[in-house]
Automatic annotation (TrEMBL):
Residues 24-282 form the Protein kinase domain. This is Serine/threonine-protein kinase YabT. Keywords: ATP-binding, Kinase, Membrane, Nucleotide-binding, Transferase, Transmembrane, Transmembrane helix. It comes from the Bacteria. The chain crosses the membrane at residues 280-300. The keyword Cell cycle does not apply. One of its GO terms (molecular function) is protein serine/threonine kinase activity. The keyword Cell wall biogenesis/degradation does not apply. The gene is yabT. Its EC number is 2.7.11.1. SUPFAM superfamilies: Protein kinase-like (PK-like) (SSF56112).
């Protein structure tokens, strides 16, 4: 079935902003979700991610939230590049342009490296959430699909459709990450809501038996915290994180700043796989030693 964006976002298509006049060339479609589509675009030699929204009001709310967050002195500074309208089949479609970050999903990263990397990734993700919370917002729809991991566990959030001002109702969610789904709290934009989703995200990533798909089918009255704590007991890394995860699931952290302090205390001394970290530096040092040795021989020959 042909969708409204097939032609507008085909590779090579040109998108021109109605008001700002910036021109973008589509390289490829990155994804399509419930509230919009995202494409990789190029303006000159620079590459960006462009998101077009289905509903103008919801999309403008997302832009306003992202603008407020990106104006702060944090890692989101200047994240929002442009916002404008485009014409598709005679209809005005709102879009915004943001930085494009190369990376992989959390699951892919952990599969290629090791579960020990969850300590580094968790720290970086909590920092991102803390920055959003300090700006007066809650991310809302935190899940594996809405983040990417790059380099040495660097984390970036890539879909801001669920971002909501603190105190408002959560406007976008994914069931198994939602505390309401687990009868563990209300669907209100609070820092503790994101921290609950953070705990689920880690457990889902560490769960080698892939049980979360089955949880969707369970009746509400049969969803219990014990189902989640059983995953902690069975996985060595999750077991080490259990004190933090239990507090996050029970809503015992008032703020993400409080949570990140607790997280850092818990993982102090934990290390990612040494072979993964040290190997590149061993190669560099080995190459450098050969170069120095060769230079010394040349000088004194």
């Amino acid at each position: 079935m042909t969708t409204w964006y097939d032609e507008a976002f085909r590779p090579g298509a040109v998108i021109k902003g109605k008001w700002n006049g910036h021109v973008y060339v589509v390289e490829r479609l990155l994804g399509a979700g419930s509230n919009g589509i995202v494409a990789l675009v190029r303006r000159g030699n620079a590459r960006f991610a462009l998101k077009a929204g289905y509903e103008t009001v919801d999309h403008q709310s997302e832009i306003n939230s992202l603008l407020a967050i990106s104006m702060k002195e944090n890692s989101f500074k200047n994240f929002l590049i442009d916002s404008d309208d485009m014409m598709i089949q005679g209809k005005g479609i709102s879009f915004y342009v943001m930085r494009y970050i190369e990376g992989v999903t959390l699951s892919e990263f952990i599969h290629k490296r090791s579960q020990d990397w969850i300590y580094v990734i968790g720290t970086n993700l909590l920092r991102k959430l803390t920055e959003i919370h300090r700006s007066g917002y809650v991310f809302g729809d935190l899940k594996v699909e809405n983040m990417i991991v790059s380099n040495y566990g660097d984390v970036d959030l890539i879909d801001f459709g669920g971002v909501s001002p603190k105190g408002r109702a959560i406007k976008q969610l994914t069931e198994v990450y939602d505390r309401g789904f687990w009868n563990m709290g209300e669907r209100v934009a609070e820092e503790s809501y994101d921290l609950f989703s953070f705990a689920i995200l880690l457990l889902k990533t560490l769960d080698h038996r892939k049980r979360f798909a089955g949880f969707i089918k369970t009746l509400p009255q049969n969803r219990e915290l014990d189902q989640l704590t059983s995953i902690m007991r069975e996985n060595p890394v999750a077991a080490q994180l259990a004190p933090f995860l239990n507090k996050a699931l029970r809503g015992e952290f008032n703020t993400s700043e409080e949570a990140i302090v607790e997280w850092k205390k818990l993982i102090a001394g934990k290390k990612v796989a040494q072979s993964t970290l040290k190997m590149p530096w061993l190669k560099i040092c080995f190459a450098a030693s050969i170069f120095i040795c060769g230079a010394t021989i040349y000088m004194y020959w």
